[in-house]
Amino acid sequence: MSERSTDRTAQRAAVRGTDSAEDTNARQPLGERIQSKLANATTEHRQNAEASPQPVTSRRAAASGKKKSPRRARLRLTRVDPWSVMKTSFLLAVAFGIVTVVSVLIVWTVLGGAGVWDSINATVEDVLGSEAGNFDVTDYISTSRVLGFTMLVAVVDVVLLTAIATLTAFLYNMAAALLGGVELTLAEDN
Hints:
This protein has helices at residues 2-16, 20-26, 30-51, 56-64, 82-113, 116-128, 143-179; strands at residues 72-77, 182-187. By secondary structure, it is mainly alpha-helical. It folds into two domains: 2-68, no CATH class; 77-187, no CATH class. Strands 1-2 form a two-stranded antiparallel sheet. It is elongated and about 115 Å long. It starts with a helix and ends with a strand.
């Protein structure tokens, strides 16, 4: 095992052109080597910045001489984070539930204000006559009952939409792992 390591060290030294003992003795400490590399990179960066005062895009446009076409980027959507999908779908489902409850309240208030319930009561009384008694349609479909049912449906809807969206994200991730995901082409505006 030690013969192998000495052979490898000798091969590395031969590639570098130095002897292994000479290499370790002449080498600078790591901190000094990093500092010298950074200094070289800094001076090279400054020289490049001084040599090209013109921006890259204007040089490209001047070289081509014609109007540049919008840049395009082809991207592939390979993974959707299920946690962020769950949070987003939950908030959107809650907003949808609130809109549903408010819209049902508005519709029920408008129907009551337009006299629809009184008209239904009068029609039932005309059809059934004296058998109708004290029939009132609002006893069966009052605003409080309808809003309670609507809130129940909205809560169930929030749970179902959130669960379905999260499950869809997991299924998309599995399908994207097999098939590569959805490929998108994004273009810059002119």
